[in-house]
Structure to design on (712 residues):
DNA sequence: CTGAAAGCGCTTACAG
DNA sequence: CTGAAAGCGCTTACAG
């Protein structure tokens, strides 16, 4: 539409307004130093012709640099946060030619103080935008307020925090991710079976918000369909298979009616490895996230289904939205919910090479 | 890596080689009219410094226009092919600033001759690349050969054809999409249930390749798990509910053990509408594609699961790959298989606004 | 075959 | 407050 105005340039505007290109440029960018009169004239024409700047020319001519910071948990290869990091890198490399650089700041995901330390000197450097993994709500809120004061835009990933001024959130609706896991499990269970919910204990870390929300959604669905079985709980340790095996042996011996299992974070391989070792093929296990240790067990048939949340896209879209906001004045939706993907053994392979 | 060479410009190369920028430009683009000696010199330096052209400057300076043609079936709002069309449009609008235009050519998907007619005068205009929906294999092969002769690159979407020189294919592995449907259905069926496979008859159109492959995958999975039920078949008409209802009434009356249904193209709403009208809630129905009439029934619980194949991305990636090939000399993978998505009532809504 | 110059649409000092 | 000019990195005639 408006094809006729599609290649109006700044010089054209300048001529129509009877001013120089410098003046037009100043009003376009609100750089001031323009008389009220000229400003009005130029703005009127800008609107009339629906002026669309040529972005390539702009970025060619401009020496302006943008610097973004992404604050995310550190990770070992194959862990969940690696995926978010990859998405960030992809966006960064795509936007490189627009003079955008992205620095990643890592913190220990089990240590609230580490987050605060990482963040403390953030504003010493030049920062034009921030992406934040919202694991520690209180700390994130403090940081958000500081960014507000400095008028630096920021986006959240992983889980949302209400009441803040984030430019946007990219992540899933954890509650529904719990509902879906429940559906996947109960569809494959007779209604007299029991379900085991395992929690993974980690030094000094209580359940994440995300985990809690998934659990709520899960339990809600069971109630709604009138699931008749019992729910058992067990606490496992992330790095202590001996302990875990003993606990699980006891539990399954005492409750042979347990035919389903669920873990609300990305570590369902812990339970999976036990089931595999014991050859307990009749227990259906559902978990979260396409990390290597999980996908391996999914393809072997030990895990029945995985629920995934496109972490790569969270990182990618997060950085992209900062770019679009700053460079192109486009504002994203405030809440952007990723698809909740259902992975079975049969469709797994097409996801593995298609993460973005 | 090689940060030190990251902003080497043509003038730098020119100086290093002791020639003018014009000469450097000629060797970069193989425009000829350069002495063998200078060519060698320049090429050596180009390689040494890992020269990366500034794409924005290039496209700013260049008046070169690219014109792509996308040949796809015509569609009414809400039909399957609309999604592919949307993906094409999205790519086109993103690439507009690179002086790329995309024209869509539509043909009647039930009429082989219509395809040939549409395509006949394709080469009269200027065409730099073509995207083809491969419904009619023979016609597509003829067209492909003509494009080969004219050295015009082309990509396939929807289903692949082997033995041609397509730059790339974007679509799914239909056979596995059949396997997955079988898994989704049988997971929810007792092994003594029967399954109804409905075929949709359309004037003068036999089953698509895609439909056949899905069916093969479906049946193979049933065999592999030793499914004990019977398979029933019925032919329905796309626009004749009266006929369909009579046929289905007979069938279900005669075979009350039918507890599962499948249709191998995007029209499973036809069977869905029948089940809904008859209130037959115990029959599980699995189908394909996120078109409106299907998603409506999925959210109502009439359809149990939909298998989807990211048509928007097929269109989008197809056009993008032509751009990347021509503008940036990047060659795509020859076969690009989209994820096969599993949609249940519970995760549907997050897909509807996230098609790309 | 080769090079100097103009131009793509915008931004950035700079002089006034 | 305003405008003329140079420059971003590349391509495109044009003259030789």
């Amino acid at each position: 539409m408006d094809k006729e105005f599609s290649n109006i340039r700044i010089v054209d505007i300048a001529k129509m307004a009877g001013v120089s290109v410098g003046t037009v440029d100043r009003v376009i960018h609100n750089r001031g130093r323009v008389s009220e009169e000229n400003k009005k004239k130029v703005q009127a024409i800008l609107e009339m012709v629906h002026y669309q700047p040529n972005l390539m020319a702009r970025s060619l001519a401009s020496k302006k640099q943008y610097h973004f910071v992404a604050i995310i948990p550190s990770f070992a290869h194959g862990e969940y946060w690696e995926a978010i990091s990859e998405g960030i890198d992809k966006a960064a490399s795509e936007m490189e030619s627009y003079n955008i650089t992205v620095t990643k700041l890592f913190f220990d995901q089990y240590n609230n103080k580490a987050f605060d330390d990482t963040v403390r000197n953030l504003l010493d450097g030049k920062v034009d935008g921030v992406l934040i993994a919202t694991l520690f709500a209180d700390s994130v809120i403090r940081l958000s307020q500081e960014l507000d004061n400095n008028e630096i835009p920021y986006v959240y990933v992983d889980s949302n925090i209400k009441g803040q001024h984030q430019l946007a959130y990219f992540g899933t609706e954890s509650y529904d991710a719990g509902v879906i896991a429940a559906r996947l499990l109960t569809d494959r269970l007779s209604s007299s079976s029991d379900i085991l919910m395992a929690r993974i204990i980690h030094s000094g870390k209580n359940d994440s918000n995300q985990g809690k929300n998934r659990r709520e959604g899960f339990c809600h669905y069971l109630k709604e369909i009138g699931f008749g079985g019992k729910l058992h709980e067990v606490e496992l340790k992330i790095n202590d298979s001996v302990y875990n095996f003993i606990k699980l042996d006891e539990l399954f011996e005492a409750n042979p009616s347990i035919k389903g299992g669920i873990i609300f974070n990305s570590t369902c391989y812990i339970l999976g490895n036990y089931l595999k070792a014991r050859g307990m093929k009749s227990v259906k296990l559902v978990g979260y996230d396409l990390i290597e240790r999980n996908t391996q067990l999914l393809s072997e048939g030990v895990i029945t289904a995985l629920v995934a949340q496109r972490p790569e896209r969270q990182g990618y879209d997060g950085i992209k939205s900062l770019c679009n906001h700053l460079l192109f004045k486009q504002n994203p939706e405030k809440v952007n919910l990723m698809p909740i993907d259902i992975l079975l053994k049969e469709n797994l392979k097409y996801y593995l090479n298609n993460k973005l």
User: Anything to note?
Assistant: Residues 7, 9-11, 21-22, 25, 29, 53-54, 56-64 of chain A lie near DNA strand C (CB under 10 Å from a C1').
